[in-house]
Structure formats: structure tokens, C-alpha cells
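batch_manifest entry 22 of 60
target: Putative phosphoenolpyruvate synthase regulatory protein
source organism: Arthrobacter wenxiniae
requested by: lab member K.T.
priority: normal
notes from requester: please return C-alpha cells only, no post-processing; we will run our own comparison against the previous entry in this batch. if the run fails, retry once and flag.
--- input ---
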Amino acid sequence: MPDAVRHVYFLSDGTGITAETLGSTLLTQFPKSRFYRTTVPFISTVAKARSVVREIDQVALRGEAPLVFSTAVGEEIRNELATCNGVLVDLIGVHVQLLEEALHVKASHQPGQAHGLGNALRYQSRMMAVEYAMEHDDGQSLRALEKAEVILIAPSRCGKTPSTMYLALQHGVYAANFPLVDEDFGHDVLPEPLRPFQAKCFGLTSNPMRLSQVRTERRPGSDYASLRQCGIELRNAERLYVTHDIPHVNSASMSVEEISAVILERMGLRH
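--- output ---
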């Protein structure tokens, strides 16, 4: 019998992205448990922290203590959050203390550093990579294709667009993507625009059932979404990858984060 739904809070004095990412990663180790998730970002004052504590305490009165993941760095706010009646997992405090001891210097305890502008040059680089990914999405532009660090190729709906956008936004990678269609198969040669850039190509594949489900959401009842058509396209794509020694991965059961990590590793990209 599945467990009851457990309330989970992700708390931060910044955007909450880090708390969500790290907390959710830990929760994946409990696949049979069900969670109701609430993110509270920008807890910038003790008064707001106190308000969040009251909310958590109210939830605790109605059932099991909520799980609380916090990346707040301000000492007063952290101390206030620590008074809640939830199960608090402080994702910052202990680690900052260890680093202070190792570096022999006190931490700044300034919130909002993880996903703010930070290094302005790096931020600008990421935004330029996003613009490049948008321009070169789904083969709509071949301009400056030589600037791409990786070109994702795959049949439609295998995850090219979200992967290129994630690589650009998160890692500043100049990523283009190019769709493989029926006309690209049968000759065992890469589409002409890709031939000068074969070393930059990375292939995505899927399984026919999963691809059919995804395509059916877009065009229900179409030949494009049929299990037969999906199977043909995937087999042809995989043959193309093998023929040209193009690294590839099956994206059917992978998150965009996992796909991107594999691409970075296999392509030797370090950002």
C-alpha cells in the first residue's frame, strides 16, 4: 500500500532553484513515496521566515511533519527556519562551516549568489548561447553552424530542443539541432549541411512506443505518430549513427539533465 502524501518545502533566500534541485535529487531515492511540493523563494527577512515557519507548523498539526529543504544562507533567517516543526535538511549550513574551516576565512553569508548574475562575463556567455540555440532550433537556420560546439540530430520529438536549450542556459554551450526526416534515410549519408560538421554531431534516439506516445499528443491518429512510422525512423536514425560513428544515446527514459550530462561527457565539453 503506498505511503500517504508527505508535504515537502523547498526554502531559499534566493530563487529556490538549488533547494529544489538538491532536495528533489534526495527524494528520488524514495520512489514509492508520494510528495506534495511547495517552493518558497526570496525569504529575505526574518518576518517572512517566521511566516513560513507558521505555515509549516500548521501543516505539521494536520499530519506527519513536513520535510523541509533549505538553502538559506543568512544566519538569522536560518536560525528562524530551524524552529519549525518540520524535518529540516539544511543544505548549506554544515557545508559552509566545513569550507570556512578549510579556507580559513569566514563566508559572506550573502543570499542569491548561486543563480544571480554572479560573473557577468559568464552570464552574458550563457545568454548568447541561448540566442544561438533558439536561432538554430530544428534546422531553421544554418548560419554560422561552424560556431556550434555540438549539433544534436534525431527524428522529430526525441528531445533535441529541450536538450539544446538546457545546454545553452545551464552550461553556456553553443548547441544547434537538426531534424532527421524520411528524405535523410536510405542513402547512409549525412544530410548535406551536416557533412562538414560530422565530428560535432550527437544523435538522440528513443523507443517506438514512447515516441509514438509523444507524437500522438501533437498529432493524434496521424501516420507521423503511428508505431510503425516511429519504428522505421528510429531504426534508420540508429543505422545512420553507427555508419558514421556518431555518438548517441536513447533519451526515452532520461531527463534533460541526464541527456545533457551524457552529451557533455561524450563530446568532451567542459563548461
